[in-house]
Design brief:
The complex is a heterodimer of chains A (76) and B (570). Chain A is mostly helical and 76 residues long. Chain A has 1 helix and no strands. In chain A, 16% of the residues are buried. The N and C termini of chain B lie far apart (69 Å). Chain B contains 19 helices and no strands. The chains are: A mainly alpha (76), B mainly alpha (570). Chains A and B meet through helix 1 of A and helix 12, helix 13, helix 14, helix 15 and helix 16 of B.
Chain lengths: 76, 570
């Protein structure tokens, strides 16, 4: 017997949708349909820029730690 | 509304069987991992240090090969069946490859575990990277060979299904999931030639005593010829789920079907000609070949970055459809209570971190610094250990209900489980990476030297050990919770609609992409040419210098290789 209780994640309005919580039921609360042309992935761009900056920062850090220190720190 | 098990009961039975084998390997392999983590850090030692290598081999083979590949076998069978919308052409063939690969995996596992019982006179303490000079019992190699042949037949099964579909749909684009399966299998056929030659021609006769010596560098090189593409063989099922399932779980649609196809074609082309980047520290391979392998490896960043963009954009599409706004605040609109979504998203986040340490590994000069240290296990616990394993576990929460007709036993436990894996891996992988930078070696039960202490600039070695021990323990607990949840889900009462298993169409569909992307013959031919370019000279060098069966030679070997080739041609 499942320990899940009935939740509001799947409403009873749509007879085609399972009742109770089901994994993968996210589309039930879609507020607006975004077509290809309406969708502008600026958030993705922001995340990739942040990742890129982290990469650059870590590379610079590695460069200073491993090379400009004058000796190899990796062997203690 | 019906789900997969209702439409394809025979295929669902096979997929369930593969997942049972996969999860059994996960449980045993994770237990071995716990023993390793606690032994290595010195907090609990229930085995002798000599048995550490048996446990390490079991951990590596059962998790990196058996757990991942059996999950792939099931997932790909599911994906081909559902995307072609037809049953497998011959279910007996499907059961045949399942039987062969399972028998092979059991043989290999028996040979490994027997090492813990000295009276059995059988062992396979060869680590995950099974090449000479370490030698295993013949049963280990025979089991591996059967396992590999089983995967080949599975691939043939999927190609037969595709051929049958193609005869009925001559002008259609290959459905995306089937396209992903076929390109992955083409890569697998190409890359497993190396390990098949190594095992069948050299290691099996050697382990039986039919030949006295082998050329260790040749078996190493043939292993790594397969050993890097196998990384993508683990990763491609995760990518298949990120591209085709994750956008749906996020409430959106895949951003671009053509981009997904390009990524899989790139992996087919670029996966195999890079294996020598695992051998930067091997004497006997000229620096030039290593440099070429490094350049090829850097090209592999392209499909990874394309994936990062496409998958994140697909998630953003879902978030914005669910009311998300702003540059980053849309992240809060994603369905973080859904364990399948959260697990996959956290796995992707870890993969981004693994991308950084992967770039360090790929660079020849920096690789020299970290190659034989704990940094490298820290890296692959982010990639295969989290990006792949966590995606597979999270995906199971969505997949298993389709295969059983029963709903998930507990979503809160599932959610806790995936987050626990993430936290455990943050501890363990952070500890491993930093320990690697201190020079602490990998693959050893006793990482100490006389009259030498490792010292940390930030924190302490003790703190790193604690992090690794805590991390390893949390990861084991997470696996136990996963297995517990899946097992209880499988014995739930059947219900009519256990899962929302529909997959929405991509925002940008296959119709807008070049038809040449579906030309699998062309991409295979190019992939073969690239492999020949990357490997013919290094292999000729190794054979000319050390002989096929291990003659002694001199180093470096590049010039001798050229003489050898000229001699053969003239």
């Amino acid at each position: 017997m499942s320990i899940e209780t009935e939740t509001d994640s799947a409403t009873g309005d749509d007879p085609e949708r399972p009742r109770g919580y089901v994994v993968g039921s996210a589309p039930s609360d879609v507020e607006r349909e975004l077509s290809h042309d309406e969708f502008d992935p600026v958030g993705t761009l922001s995340i990739i820029l942040v990742y890129f900056l982290i990469l650059v920062g870590m590379w610079v850090f590695m460069y200073f730690v491993e090379f400009l220190g004058g000796e190899l720190t990796v062997v203690g | 509304m019906s789900t997969f098990v209702d439409r394809y009961p025979d295929e669902a039975r096979v997929v369930r069987a593969t997942l049972v084998v996969s999860f059994a390997a996960l449980g045993i392999g994770a237990f071995f991992g716990l023993i390793q983590a606690l032994h290595r850090t010195g907090y609990l030692r229930i085995i002798d240090s000599t048995d550490y290598y048996t446990v390490l081999t079991g951990h590596g083979v059962l998790l990196a090969l058996v757990f991942t590949i059996f999950f792939l076998l099931g997932l790909f069978t599911w994906a081909v069946t559902r995307s072609l919308e037809r049953p497998m052409p011959n279910i007996r063939l499907t059961w045949a490859w399942f039987g062969l690969s399972t028998t092979g995996a059991v043989f290999a596992a028996v040979a490994i575990v027997a090492g813990l019982f000295p009276s059995l006179d059988m062992s396979a303490d060869v680590l995950y990277t099974f090449y000479a000079p370490l030698q295993a019992h013949p049963l280990f190699y025979i089991g591996l060979a059967m396992f590999i042949v089983g995967t080949w037949i599975a691939g043939a099964d999927w190609f037969l299904a595709y051929r049958s579909w193609r005869s009925d749909n001559p002008d259609e684009r290959i459905p995306l999931q089937t396209f992903m399966v076929l390109t992955t299998m083409l890569m697998w056929y190409l890359s497993t030639i190396g390990v098949a030659v190594s095992v069948v021609v050299f290691l099996i006769p050697w382990s039986f005593g039919l030949i006295e010596t082998v050329n260790p560098l040749l078996t190493r090189t043939l292993f790594w010829y397969f050993g890097h593409p196998v990384v993508y063989f683990w990763l491609m099922p995760a990518y298949l789920m990120w591209y085709t399932i994750l956008p749906k779980l996020a409430g959106g649609r895949l951003f671009s079907d053509p981009l997904a196809r390009v990524v899989f074609v790139l992996f087919l082309l670029l996966s195999t000609p890079v294996g020598i980047h695992h051998q930067y520290l091997d004497p006997g391979i000229a620096e030039g070949f290593k440099f070429i392998a490094m350049t090829n490896t850097m090209f592999l960043l392209l499909p990874s970055l394309l994936t990062a963009f496409t998958v994140v954009a697909s998630m953003e599409h879902g978030a914005r459809q669910r009311g998300g706004e702003g540059y980053l605040s849309w992240l809060g609109s994603l369905p973080w209570r859904d364990p399948a979504f959260t697990g996959m998203a956290l796995a992707g986040l870890m993969f981004a971190a693994g991308g950084f340490s992967g770039m360090i590994n790929a660079g020849m000069n920096i690789n020299y610094l970290v190659h034989n240290t704990l940094w490298v296990p820290g890296h692959f616990h982010l990639t295969v250990g989290t990006a792949v394993a966590l995606t597979m576990m999270a995906g199971s929460y969505w997949l298993v209900p389709q295969l059983t007709g029963r709903r998930l036993y507990s979503r809160p436990i599932a959610l806790f489980q995936v987050v626990l894996w993430f936290i455990g891996m943050v501890f363990m992988s952070n500890g491993m990476h930093r320990a690697g930078l201190l020079g602490i070696p990998r693959r050893t039960a006793e990482p100490q030297y006389q009259s030498f202490d490792f010292s940390a600039t930030i924190g302490s070695v003790t703190e790193l050990r604690i992090q690794m021990a805590i991390g390893g323990t949390l990861l084991f607990v997470s696996v136990v919770l996963f297995l517990f949840n899946v097992l209880l889900s499988a014995i739930e009462d059947p219900i009519e609609m256990p899962v929302d298993d529909s997959l929405p169409a991509p925002l940008s569909g296959a119709d807008g992409s070049p038809v040449v992307l579906d030309n699998l013959r062309l991409w295979t031919a190019i992939a073969i040419v690239l492999v020949i370019l990357a490997y013919s000279l290094p292999l000729a060098s190794i054979v000319s210098d050390g002989g096929l069966f291990g003659e002694s030679g001199t180093f470096p070997v590049f010039i001798e290789a050229v003489y050898w080739i000229v001699g053969v041609v003239v």
